Amino acid sequence: MTQNNWITLETTSKPYQLELMKGLLLEHEIQSVIINKIDSSYLQFGEAELKVKASDLETAKEILKDVQE
After folding, report:
1. pLDDT mean across residues, the chain
2. Any residues with CB less than 8 A from the CB of 6 and at least 6 apart, and which?
3. Which domains can be identified in the chain, with CATH numbers?
């Protein structure tokens, strides 16, 4: 996985939300990864990121936009 090909789509301090989004994207055959940067000791610091391939970014935004409305 080349880091330059992946773009952050969403960032949150609640990783479970990203898991739901990841599942939805997978239903539309869009690969995504969650990078969890939340401090494991305190759980109050840091955020988790949902990343998609640059080529899937616009489609992923549309899919998530439809769900959020």
Report:
1. 87
2. 33, 51, 52, 53, 54
3. 3-68 (3.30.70.1530)
For residues 57 and 50, the answer to whether their CB atoms sit within 8 Å is no
DSSP string, 25-46: HHHTT--EEEEE---TTTSSS-
pTM metric for this prediction = 0.81
- Pairing assessment for the beta strands 6-12 and 48-53 based on DSSP bridges: antiparallel
pLDDT at 11 over 60: yes
Q: Tokens in use for 4?
A: 């330059």
Sorting pLDDT into bands at 50, 70 and 90, what band is 2? low
The CA R_g of the chain, rounded to the nearest whole Å, is 12
